[in-house]
Amino acid sequence: MFDLIRAAIPVFLLSLLIEWAAYRYLSHDHDAPHEHSGYGTRDTITSLSMGVGNVLINLLWKGVVVAIYTALYSLTPLRLPEQAWWVWVLLFLADDYAYYWYHRVSHEVRLFWASHVVHHSSQHYNLSTALRQTWVPMTALPFWLVLPLLGFAPWMVLLAQAWNLLYQFFVHTERVGRLPAPVEYIFNTPSHHRAHHGSNDVYLDRNYGGILIIWDRLHRTFQPETEPVRYGLVHNIHTHRPVQVAFHEFAALWRDVRTARNWRDRLHYLTRPPGWHPER
C-alpha cells in the first residue's frame, strides 16, 4: 500500500536542509529570539533517530491498523462513495477532528502523554522537531476507529491521516512569522504551533488542532502566541539517548503505579493529567 509519509521523506530532509542553511547563512546573532534558536547537532540527531524508529515500527504496526480498519469496515452497512467530492470534504473534517481529540487526550491523560511526550522533549523548534515521533504509536488507534464504521474506506482514512501529518511537518518552524489574519483564524499555523510547544504556563495544553485551529476555538483550548516561547517540557529530561527519550515517561509512570498506595491511585496515575499525585 502506498505510504504518503514514507514517500515524503526526501521532501522532509530537503526542507530541513534548507531551513538549516537559512539559519546558518541568512541569520545573525541578534535575530535569535532565544538560546535554542536554530539547530543543535545532538538535538537534531536525536530527532532524526526518533523519526527513523517511528518509521520502522510503523512498518509493522500499519499492517495491524489496516487489518482493524478493514474488519470494522466490513461490519458496517454504510458505504460512502469514494468518487464524491463531498465525501472527501467530510473525511477532511472528520480526520482533523479525530486528530484534535487524539492530541488533546495525549496531553491530558498521562498514559497517552507517555507516548506523546517524545514530540515535546526538544528544547529546539525546527523542522527536525516534527520528525521527533513516538515509538509507541498504538495510542492513536482508538480515535480513528469510528471513521471506517461510518463508511469511509480504510485506504481513505489512512490517506487522510497521512496528509494531516504532512501538513503539520511544515508548521514546526520559527522561520515563518504570523500569516494573514484569515489564515491564522482558520488554520493551524507556525505561530499557533509554536505556542503549543511552549512550556510557558500560558501555553500549556493549548492549540491541539492538526490542520484546522477552529476546533481549539470551538472547545476553548486556543491560545495565540503572545510572549516568547520556551520550548521543551516543564521538567526537561536533558538527554539525547533515543531509547531514554522514547520511554522515560513510561518508566516514570510505572514507578508511580508500582509504588501507589491503592488501586484507585494506580488508576488515577494512568488516567489523570501529567503531574497528578494523590493528596497526602
TrEMBL record:
Its main location: membrane. GO terms for molecular function: glyceryl-ether monooxygenase activity; iron ion binding. InterPro entries: Fatty_acid_hydroxylase, Sterol_desaturase/TMEM195. Keywords: Lipid metabolism, Membrane, Oxidoreductase, Transmembrane, Transmembrane helix. The keyword Ion transport does not apply. It holds the Pfam family FA_hydroxylase. It comes from the Bacteria. The chain crosses the membrane at residues 48-72, 84-102, 141-166. One of its GO terms (biological process) is lipid biosynthetic process. Residues 88-221 form the Fatty acid hydroxylase domain. This is Sterol desaturase/sphingolipid hydroxylase (Fatty acid hydroxylase superfamily).
